[in-house]
Each structure stands twice: as structure tokens, then as C-alpha cells.
Specification:
192 residues; 76% helix
């Protein structure tokens, strides 16, 4: 993961992949979860999205076996983005719906992960022409990102919200969404 964060993901992938059999055969549930989620993250940064999708699915299975709903939510939110980047809007929408439902099962429904699940669902709702819920979800995600001081996430949400408004022909509202002030930044998690 450290190599991936240094923009050297191509070097990190083979280092992780060679441990797959060992982790699967001898690792605890928690070790298998961390292995698959780390590998998915590195594969994504190495631009191996199809492989990343499979790794996210494996991480979700391990998180479910652990009973860790927050990690299931986080990994499902990441899986939504990967399937969308592969050009699979219906599948991405289904994962976004699942992540949105899961956010109600975690303790903190006002955090960045919860906001990300709302933003993802809003984006896929808008892509599929379901604008009413999309606009409501963008506003909710925006409020969560703003309260948490997650300026990078907030900026992404504003961009997606503005694009949805443009799809509706609401140019003035789109410009207003892009001109809102951003809060001071806070450290962000490495994966979401």
C-alpha cells in the first residue's frame, strides 16, 4: 500500500499477489480481509480495475464473515466506483443501493463513508435518470462532508451535483453549487 501511495502501485501489486495462496490457506479472517482490501486498493491505483473489482468482492466476503458492517460498507462503496469505471452502470447502481442501505447499519451514519455512499448513489441515480432522489442525496452528502471538514470529498460532491444539475438544464444552480465555499481540510482516510 505504501508503494501505491507513492505512485508506485505497479511495483506493489506483485509484492502482494505472491502472498494470495498463503493468506487464503493460513490467514485469519481479519488477515484475509486486510489482504484483499489492500490488494484491491493497490490494483485500482495500478489501473487494473477488473482485478480490483474481484479483490473488492473478496474483501467484502471477508468483512461479512467478520461481521464488520462498516468495512462491508466501505468496500461496497469502493466496489461501486470500480464497476462504474468499467462502464457497468446497472451493476454500479446495484452496489450503490446496497452501500446506501448498509450505511444505516453502521454506528456513525454522519461520516465520510456514509456521505460517499450517498454521493455514489446520487451519481448513479442521475446517470439512470432518477433525478429527484439524486438531488436530495447530493445535498445530504454535501452536508456530511461539510460537517466533517472533508473538503476534497465535498469538492467532488459539488462537481457531481453540478453535473446532475446541468443534465437537468439548471445552469445557474450548477454554477452556484460550484461556487460554494469549502471548509478547511482535515486528513482523509486512504481508502473509501
Amino acid at each position: 500500500v505504501a508503494l501505491a501511495q507513492q505512485r508506485r502501485a505497479d511495483e506493489g501489486v506483485p509484492l502482494l499477489e505472491r502472498f494470495a495462496t498463503l493468506v487464503e490457506s493460513q490467514g485469519s479472517l481479519a488477515q484475509r480481509f486486510h489482504y484483499w482490501s489492500d490488494l484491491a486498493y493497490v490494483l485500482n491505483l495500478a489501473d487494473r480495475r477488473r482485478d480490483s473489482v474481484q479483490a473488492w468482492k473478496a474483501a467484502i466476503a471477508q468483512a461479512e464473515a467478520l461481521g464488520d458492517r462498516h468495512e462491508v460498507l466501505t468496500c461496497t462503496t469502493n466496489l461501486t466506483g470500480m464497476t462504474g469505471q468499467l462502464g457497468l452502470p446497472q451493476e454500479a447502481h446495484a452496489y450503490a443501493e446496497r452501500a446506501y442501505r448498509l450505511r444505516n447499519e453502521v454506528e456513525d451514519t454522519d461520516d465520510v463513508v456514509s456521505g460517499a455512499s450517498e454521493m455514489n448513489l446520487a451519481m448513479w441515480d442521475a446517470t439512470l435518470g432518477r433525478f429527484d432522489r439524486a438531488m436530495t442525496l447530493y445535498e445530504s452528502a454535501r452536508a456530511k462532508f461539510s460537517r466533517s471538514g472533508a473538503a476534497v470529498w465535498l469538492a467532488g460532491c459539488e462537481h457531481n451535483h453540478a453535473f446532475g444539475l446541468l443534465m437537468l438544464g439548471q445552469t445557474t444552480r450548477a454554477l452556484q453549487a460550484l461556487q460554494r465555499p469549502l471548509p478547511a481540510t482535515t486528513p482523509l482516510p486512504t481508502q473509501v
